[in-house]
Write a structure and sequence with these properties.
Blueprint (H helix, E strand, L loop, with lengths): L2 E5 L6 E2 L3 H14 L15 H11 L4 H22 L6 E2 L3 H8 L5 E6 L7 H7 L9 E3 L10 H13 L8 E5 L2 H9 L3 E5 L6 H5 L5 E3 L5 H9 L5
Parallel strand pairs: 1-4, 1-6, 4-5, 6-7, 7-8
Antiparallel strand pairs: 2-3
Helix pairs in contact: 1-3, 2-3, 4-9
Length: about 230
């Protein structure tokens, strides 16, 4: 059975050193004159359009106005990211290069991304960390839907269209570092693999009852066994 394995980016594959936050602050200030309460806002597990909407509504903007400005905000975020990400000290998480190398080229695996980042900044983060964004054959991104829980279905549909094989929760695994990733996997009836390599401790993640819980992705053989095991019976 072919498996669709979807990785979150921030805190799971890489540590971005607040690079994305800086790009968003630049774009929001340029377009709207304010980034709202960005300094105190907790981004973990949220999609970029959700974050932008929350910040700008807190600054007094209405949802319709925010929606109309998203394209130009995205363009400015991407341009700023292209210029700044390489010098932001973005680092790959423990074990990630080895794990991706072991998964790359397997005929029984489709690698993808499931991230709150927009489609144009996600590969820039990976590249800045020294990862090959081309390893991921598809993705579901914050720019696809504000609600992260809708992203598994988008990714499954894209995987089915790409390969001609059916994908649903029974052959999909979602790997992430936040409670939102676990809840997202549950929404898609996929297998939830939580990893405490981001900003949430393992005991916090355990409260959301993921199918598997890891401190990090450093033990390649162990992680492969989990990802490639027969899922959901």
């Amino acid at each position: 059975m072919t498996r669709l394995i979807l990785f979150d980016i921030d805190g799971t594959l890489i540590r971005s050193n607040s690079a994305g936050r800086a790009a968003m602050a630049f774009a929001l200030t340029k377009v709207c004159g304010t980034a709202g309460p960005l300094e105190t806002y907790h981004m973990g597990g949220k999609t970029d359009p959700r974050i932008i909407t929350d910040l700008l509504m807190a600054a007094g903007c209405n949802p319709e106005e925010i929606q109309s400005k998203l394209p130009v905000i995205y363009d400015l975020m991407t341009a700023h990211a292209f210029e700044t990400f390489p010098s932001k000290g973005i680092q790959v998480c423990l074990g990630v290069p080895e794990l991706l190398a072991a998964l790359d080229g397997r005929e029984d695996v489709v690698l993808g991304l499931l991230t709150g980042n927009i489609v144009s900044t996600a590969p820039l983060k990976l590249t800045a960390a020294g990862l090959d964004a081309g390893l991921f054959r598809l993705g579901a991104y914050g720019s696809d839907h504000m609600d992260r829980n809708q992203l598994p279905f988008i990714a499954m549909q894209r995987a089915s269209e790409l390969t001609g094989q059916p994908f649903d929760g029974t052959n999909t695994v979602i790997v992430g570092d936040t409670p939102a990733d676990i809840l997202c996997a549950r929404a898609g009836r996929a297998t939830a693999v939580a990893v405490a390599s981001g900003w949430h401790a393992a005991d916090t993640l355990a409260k959301y009852k993921p199918d598997h819980l890891l401190e990090n992705l450093g033990d390649t053989d162990k992680v492969l066994a989990i990802l490639l095991a027969r899922q959901n019976g």
